[in-house]
């Protein structure tokens, strides 16, 4: 693994992490009706820290292979979509749009896994927990949307 590449990819993961810190759940999220299987808020940064390191290791491994441009481009796409979700869901309070973004993110992560597998099976395997977490996040986001349809899901004016 190229440690310089790892540092670049890990630094890139700081962008969605920062978005998560900037757009915190806050009172709006606490007031939503959530399913009983919603994890405690403390668990989210722990899971994401592990996933970001794993994603960065995977990308650093694949990034050294000739012909890996498309695979790395897919990695860039999924990390961009990951960043967008926090701003849309927590910042704009757009729950349904969050569902759509997570669905597209899931497809991007699956495509990244397939592309990574063409170069490095371990790198592809390192992304599988991310896909599993994405599946859970999609189900959670969808459940929150179904439970909270109505005017209370829109951001307050002003």
Reconstruct the topology from this structure.
Elements: H1 3-22, H2 26-30, H3 43-62, H4 69-91, H5 95-117, H6 121-147
Tell me the number of structural domains: 1
Note the total helix count. 6
- CATH overall fold name: Ferritin
Name of the level-1 CATH class: Mainly Alpha
Radius of gyration: 16 Å
Helix content bin: over 70%
CATH superfamily: TspO/MBR protein
What spatial form do the alpha-carbon principal axes imply?
elongated
What string, H for helix and E for strand, traces the elements in order? Answer: HHHHHH
Terminal Cα separation, in Å? 49 Å
CATH architecture: Up-down Bundle
Tell me the total number of β-strands. Answer: 0
Low-pLDDT stretches are: none
Structural class category? mainly alpha
Mean pLDDT: 92
DSSP strand (E) fraction? under 5%
Q: How would you sum up the major sheet?
A: none
Oligomer: single chain
How would you describe what is shown here?
The structure is a single chain. With 158 residues, the chain is mainly alpha-helical. The chain has a single domain, classed as Ferritin (Up-down Bundle). It contains 6 helices and no strands. The chain has helices spanning 3-22, 26-30, 43-62, 69-91, 95-117, 121-147. The radius of gyration is 16 Å and the shape is elongated. The termini are far apart. The mean pLDDT is 92.
What would you say about this model in short?
This protein has 158 residues and is mostly helical. The protein has helices at residues 3-22, 26-30, 43-62, 69-91, 95-117, 121-147. Helix 1 (3-22) packs antiparallel against helix 3 (43-62), helix 1 packs parallel to helix 4 and helix 3 (43-62) runs antiparallel to helix 6 (121-147).
């Amino acid at each position: 693994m190229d440690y310089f590449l790892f540092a670049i990819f890990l630094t890139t993961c700081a962008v969605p992490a920062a978005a998560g810190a900037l757009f915190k759940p806050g009172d709006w999220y606490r007031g939503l009706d959530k399913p009983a299987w919603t994890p405690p808020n403390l668990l989210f940064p722990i899971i994401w820290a592990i996933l970001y390191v794993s994603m960065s290791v995977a990308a650093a491994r694949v990034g050294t292979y000739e012909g890996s441009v498309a695979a790395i481009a897919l990695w860039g796409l999924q990390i961009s979509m990951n960043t967008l979700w926090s701003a849309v869901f927590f910042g704009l309070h757009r729950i349904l749009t969050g569902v759509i973004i997570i669905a597209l993110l899931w497809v991007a992560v699956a495509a990244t896994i397939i592309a990574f597998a063409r170069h490095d099976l371990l790198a592809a395997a390192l992304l599988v927990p991310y896909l599993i977490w994405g599946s859970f996040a999609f189900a959670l986001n969808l459940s929150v949307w179904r439970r909270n349809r109505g005017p209370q899901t829109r951001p307050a004016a002003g």
